[in-house]
Amino acid sequence: MYPYDVSEDPPLALLTVQVTDPASGRQVSLPGKLDTGSGISILPEKTATKLGLQAEAEVWVAGYDGTPALLPAYFVAVTLAGHTVTMLKVTASPRSQMFLGRDVLRHFIATFDGKKQVFDLIDP
Question: What's the rounded mean pLDDT across residues 67-82?
Fold first, then answer.
């Protein structure tokens, strides 16, 4: 089980993830928010730059306001909870934490216990 991050209100499911550029092998560790409302995972732009990622596609996304935007897409490997998701298509935006969407969460059994402020990710 992982504790919720209580530095935000309300507390949230946050854990350290490792992002790897499959082409160069460069790696970065950063905080990742579990976001069940997102269909695609989102890297901080600074992380994409630090890894030297090159856009390999484009993807249409819409934020909470529903406004569509065409953004560059990158392929990375993401390691969290002892499991690696390879060839994950992500996009990037100006933020400090990675958003881990359903494209990552579908690889796990995810359990959230808001009352106890803990969550778990199990690789079935």
Answer: 95
